[in-house]
């Protein structure tokens, strides 16, 4: 096995720490001091993971992974800001977030359309251009929700918590899927079974939907 470049090693380390931090924050009681501390660890390691991932996509020409990285970065920052904001009113950050995700969606749609219609070449390790439509769909949904926030002009109570929760979970889901789905070769061979590799990914989804249902229907807004 060839030695990984320094950035790739760093990417692997912060990715592992982000997943550990994300799962820890997921399991700890929400709002407690320990949850907040672990949550900050998850945020900063995910931030490093996104930026190192963006760098590696350019050095290795990983086009699909680039969109995963910037998509995760958008989710991470907007999810963090949902709780970090000082007041309840819409800010410039919210407006920028709307334009960023709209731009990502439009750019991905253009790339998908051109790549598909013109039969552009893509490396064997990259998925075909129709696969990029998943970013178009999710970007459209996120842009719609961001637009609804701009119309509402305020973000309070349960809506604020839910916005924070599912975006952080979604970022963790992407990181977990990439780690266990695309980098499983770093794990001991005994752990590379389909059941073991799928378990963390499914667990994130189960906790995400579980907490969303709880806070939306059973937990009163403070």
Give an overview in words.
The protein has 222 residues and is mainly α. It has a domain at 6-88 and 155-218. Helices cover 76% and strands 0% of the residues. It is built from seven helices and no strands.
Question: Which terms would index this structure?
Answer:
7 helices, mainly alpha, about 220 residues, about 75% helix
Q: Mean of residue pLDDT?
A: 87
Distance between the termini: 53 Å
- Sheet with most strands: none
Helical content (DSSP H or I, runs of 4+): over 70%
Question: Regions with pLDDT < 50 over 5+ consecutive residues?
Answer: none
Order of helices and strands: HHHHHHH
Shape: globular
Radius of gyration, taken over Cα atoms and rounded to an integer in Å: 18 Å
Protein structure class: mainly alpha
Q: How many distinct helices?
A: 7
Q: Give the number of DSSP strands.
A: 0
> Which range does the strand content fall in?
under 5%
Question: What's a concise summary of this model?
Answer:
The chain is built from seven helices and no strands. It is mainly alpha-helical.
Topology of this structure?
Layout: H1 6-27, H2 33-60, H3 63-84, H4 92-117, H5 133-152, H6 157-182, H7 194-218
Helix pairs in contact: 1-2, 1-6, 2-3, 3-4, 3-6, 4-5, 6-7
């Amino acid at each position: 096995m060839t030695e990984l470049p320094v950035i790739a090693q760093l990417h692997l380390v912060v990715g592992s720490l982000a997943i550990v931090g994300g799962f820890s924050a997921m399991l700890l009681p929400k709002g407690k001091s320990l949850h907040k501390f672990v949550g900050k660890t998850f945020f900063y390691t995910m931030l490093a993971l996104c930026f190192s991932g963006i760098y590696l996509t350019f050095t290795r020409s990983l086009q699909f992974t680039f969109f995963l990285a910037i998509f995760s970065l958008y989710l991470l920052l907007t999810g963090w800001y949902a709780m970090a904001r000082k007041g309840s009113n819409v800010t410039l950050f919210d407006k920028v977030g709307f334009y960023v995700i709209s731009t990502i969606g439009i750019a991905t749609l253009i790339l998908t359309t051109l790549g598909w219609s013109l039969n552009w070449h893509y490396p064997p390790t990259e998925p075909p251009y129709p696969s990029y439509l998943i970013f178009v769909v999710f970007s459209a949904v996120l842009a719609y929700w961001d637009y609804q926030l701009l119309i509402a002009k305020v973000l309070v109570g349960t809506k604020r918590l839910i916005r924070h929760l599912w975006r952080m979970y979604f970022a963790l889901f992407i990181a977990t899927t990439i780690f266990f789905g695309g980098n499983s070769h770093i794990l001991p061979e005994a752990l590379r079974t389909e059941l073991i590799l799928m378990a963390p990914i499914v667990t994130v989804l189960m906790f995400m939907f579980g907490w969303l249902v709880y806070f939306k229907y059973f937990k009163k807004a403070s």
